Amino acid sequence: xxxxxxxxxxxxxxxxxxxxxxxxxxxxxxxxxxxxxxxxxxxxxxxxxxxxxxxxxxxxxxxxxxxxxxxxxxxxxxxxxxxxxxxxxxxxxxxxxxxxxxxxxxxxxxxxxxxxxxxxxxxxxxxxxxxxx
Length: 133
Description:
single chain, 133 residues, alpha/beta, Rossmann fold, 4-stranded parallel beta sheet, 14% strand
């Protein structure tokens, strides 16, 4: 794994979903990434929208501990959850208008930029690529 020391990473919802789903083929990779944050090697954050995206899956296929497990992850110091500002929504519109992609992905990118993240970690091939990320 590439050195993440000192990095601030914005996690897309799919990374968090993989970490929570033990049957996912990407679970091991996502879990390894989260361990980097738990060891203090990097700072991990996401946005309110990603938290909602993760909770959608839990509500679709309810498990007795699913909601509590997800809420515990987002309440823990491991992943900081940022609110999406009005400026981030405006920047997301600019990203979508100039680079393309889905509005939700543009919002994740705009929030990551606003928060000073070094990179966005995603497994979404449709996520727009920006030179500053």
